[in-house]
Amino acid sequence: MADNSSFWISGIVPADGLPLMADGFTDLVELPSQGFNTLTRATRQGKQFLLKGLKPAFATSVLYQQLLRKEFDILVSLNHGGIVQAVGWENVPDLGWCIVEEYVDGVTLRAFLDANPPRQERRKVAHELIDALRYVHTKQVVHRDLKPTNILVTVNGHNVKIIDFGLSDTDAWTILKQPAGTPDYISPEQLQSGTPDCRNDIFSLGVILRQLHAGRAYDAVARRCMRPADLRYPNLSALAADLDARLKRRRFLRTAAAVLVPVAIAALALNAYYGAREQSLVQMLSAERSRLTQQGDSLLQAQADLAARAADSTARVAASAASADGAASSAVNHWIAEGQKSVDARYLPVETYADTLSSPAHYDAGRLNALFQSANTVAPDFRQQLEAALSPAEASIVVSALYAYMSEKGKVVTSKLNHLLNYE
């Protein structure tokens, strides 16, 4: 077996209690990177990895060495499908100490959004991002540099992977706690304090959710994320619960709309139908009012003529009536009273019709005419009884009085009907 001294040292630091990995990497390809880190894609045992190290200008700096080691220690403690996985901490020839990570075949969230994906894909990204970040916070880790370029979306399945924990912090570490982050995504309070707080990430998440344009519920959650720290969600669980409640309300409203919209359309159709019928009814009522007015005028004139004839008849028989004895006058008064009861009975349907008519839409001219004709005549049986009991002169007085009584009743009913039909 060859002496290990003739090869570069490769493997997990023994102090971590993890097994050594002695075989090397091949097919190294340097990837574009900003800042102080190098990114190299490499192959080992048929599998691709990402090697994250330090650029030569920073490789000898204790500060940047500690940053890289701190990132590895934090990243290796996380195990979630939405977070890039750390495989090991190795000293690679020409690269120095590196974090060995799973290689993610994907694009940054920024590039993903530039391709204008469907809203459903953007919502999927939002939910996976919230779930992954919630897991990070349960490990007492704050990312502190959450932004679209530190979020990958895989080519296969469009799954979220949070990367670059270089500025992350946790309560367990007591070094390298300076304020850090990226403009436009860093929370205001994070600029002033290096103490990690999960609400720092919640602010950054709000900015990202707003850029996703995933819908109103997501925009509302984003607005609360970007409020001052004491008004934000206290944690990702509260955020997820609020988002879920908002989405449930919107699903309920969409379901209700699916049921109510056809009903509303039917109601509009019915309104249009009845609107047309109402317009037709208004026109009909207008014509009917004119006809009824003419009919009422004719009726009133006929009643006036009837009253005049009754007066003339009364005058003609007045002399004869004056000579009649007291018993005859009493008999005439009795039959006038009885006749008025008969008229009241015959006018009762007419008055009831006028009193109960609530709307011009229910007005029935034919029915009213029939009721009037029935009420404005002396009942045949009553006339027979009258003529049998009284003399012709006395019977004429009674009939004249009854026609005058009918005229007054007719005026009352006609006034009620004219008031109703002219009300609207």
Topology summary:
Blueprint lengths: L25 E6 L5 E8 L2 E8 L1 H4 L2 H15 L9 E7 L3 E7 L3 E3 H6 L4 H20 L2 E2 L8 E4 L5 E3 L6 E2 L27 H15 L3 H10 L10 H88 L2 H31 L8 H11 L4 H10 L2 H30 L3
Helix pairs in contact: 4-5, 4-7, 5-6, 6-7, 7-11, 8-9, 8-11, 10-11
Summarize this structure briefly.
The protein is of the alpha+beta class and 424 residues long. It has helices at 56-59, 62-76, 109-114, 119-138, 198-212, 216-225, 236-323, 326-356, 365-375, 380-389, 392-421, and strands at 26-31, 37-44, 47-54, 86-92, 96-102, 106-108, 141-142, 151-154, 160-162, 169-170.
Structure explained in plain terms:
- The chain is 57% helix and 12% strand.
- The protein has 424 residues and is an alpha+beta fold.
- The chain has a 5-stranded antiparallel β-sheet. The protein has a 3-stranded antiparallel β-sheet with strand order 6-8-9.
- The relative contact order is 0.06.
Classify the beta-strand content into a percent band.
Answer: 5-15%
Class from helix and strand fractions? alpha+beta
> Would you count the extended β strands for me?
10
Work out the helix count. 11
Radius of gyration: 50 Å
Mean pLDDT: 82
Gross morphology is rod-shaped
Determine the N-to-C terminus distance. 111 Å
Name the helicity range: 55-70%
Strand order of the largest sheet: 1-2-3-5-4
The biggest sheet, with number of strands, parallel, antiparallel or mixed sense and barrel status, is: 5 strands, antiparallel
> Unreliable runs, pLDDT <50, ≥5 residues?
1-15, 17-22, 317-325
Written as H for each helix and E for each strand, in order along the chain, the element string is EEEHHEEEHHEEEEHHHHHHH
